[in-house]
Amino acid sequence: MPGASRARASGAAVLAALVGLGFAGCGGPPRPPPSSYVVKAGDTLYSISWRHGLDYHEVARLNGIGGDYRLRIGQVLRLAPAAAVRARASAPPMQAPLPVTPAPHWVWPADGAPAGTIHQPAGGIGLAIEGSAGAEVRAAAGGRVVYTGAGLRGYGELVIIKHDEAWLTAYGYNRSVYVAEGEAVQSGQRIAAIGEGPGHRPMLYFEIRLNGRPVDPTTQLPARR
After folding, report:
1. pTM
2. Which of 8, 37, 72, 175 has the most CB atoms less than 10 A away?
3. In angstroms, how far is CA 208 from the centroid of its own chain?
4. pLDDT band at 84 (very low <50, low <70, confident <90, very high)
């Protein structure tokens, strides 16, 4: 059937494009974090830790940072002792440490079909969810917004939500953001609008981290009904 052949060919082309853009690919092992980092304008402890695949508690402890997690521009942060760097570099990218608290009750952050995983250059691993440009992005669980901005390469306009002392989620490729840092959000609350991902296709990038390490979102999100 000519129509079916064209559909199969089109599907194969889409799959090839996804693999070429880094979806569902290995992307190599995550790079270990540098031994230090100089704080720049717009940085927060959460965004720095997220960028380098570290637990923000660990970074705070290494640098004697108090519970307000306040940073100064130009401040030099120690990111990890050498032994910790080596351990993180050799760990499997999708393996997470054992939970110290139960996972939140997750909800899907957007309508649309999952389109595979994306491997970020710094080691982040998340789920691409195809959708309509401007469609609603929702908080996957209740928590507090700890970062908004476009300062992390590969994420576009990004929102990070802290759910408890162990779990955080990130929402990337947003066109618009409707929440501010420090704001409390409820599960399922609108926080952003879907923008464009790789290939200028409308999609949401969604990442879950446990103690700083990425966890495969497909093992956490509920089954689609």
Report:
1. 0.72
2. 37
3. 6
4. low
